[in-house]
């Protein structure tokens, strides 16, 4: 029997990058019929956008690619999330530093999203809140989400 796996994507505001990853990853997981085995969420280290839907740029790129984002609203990451989720995946190194501070500088297991992108030179997922380039972020997120799903299937022995 397949065990349940949970994935939490984390960025700063939880309105641009991590909700994009949540929607894209959920799309791939549904396509593979694994929705009842993989629980997916996203959260931000900054509270300023709590309760808001994704940024219009994120909404636009998801719409263009027919990826559903119904019901996604921003929430602030909680200390308990770091223990509860199988995979906590941060969008950049600042997110990792902020998450580490949240748990009193113990070293939690946090993955870097870019480490799931094959052959990339990116050190973090660029923040389209500042770059304005939602396409670049979308390309990186699709590549990373595909490889993440393959990694989880491998690690769980679901192949
Ligand atoms: P995100 O982008 O972390 O990808 O959601 C940002 C969203 C909001 C802010 C910064 C980055 N902000 O400063 O309000």
Pattern of helices and strands:
EHEHHEHEHH
Separation of the first and last Cα atoms: 13 Å
Q: Helix content range of the residues, please? A: 40-55%
Main sheet makeup? 4 strands, parallel
Please tell me how large the radius of gyration is.
15 Å
CATH class category name: Alpha Beta
Output the strand order for the largest sheet. 2-1-3-4
- Indicate the structural class: alpha/beta
Strand content: 5-15%
Count of spatially separate domains: 1
Give the names of the bound compounds.
Answer: 4-nitrophenyl phosphate
CATH superfamily: Response regulator
CATH topology: Rossmann fold
Give a structural overview.
The chain is an alpha/beta fold. Helices cover 41% and strands 13% of the residues. It contains 6 helices and 4 strands; from the N terminus they run E-H-E-H-H-E-H-E-H-H. It has a 4-stranded parallel sheet with strand order 2-1-3-4. Strand 1 (5-11), helix 1 and strand 2 form a beta-alpha-beta unit. Helix 1 (17-31) crosses helix 6. The two termini are 13 Å apart. 39% of the residues are buried. The model has no long low-confidence stretch (mean pLDDT 95). 4-nitrophenyl phosphate (4NP) binds at residues 11-17, 44, 48-49, 127, 129.
Helix and strand layout, with pairings?
Blueprint: E1 5-11, H1 17-31, E2 38-44, H2 56-64, H3 81-84, E3 87-90, H4 93-102, E4 111-112, H5 128-131, H6 134-156
Parallel strand pairs: 1-2, 1-3, 3-4
Helix pairs in contact: 1-6
The site of 4-nitrophenyl phosphate has 12 residues, from loops.
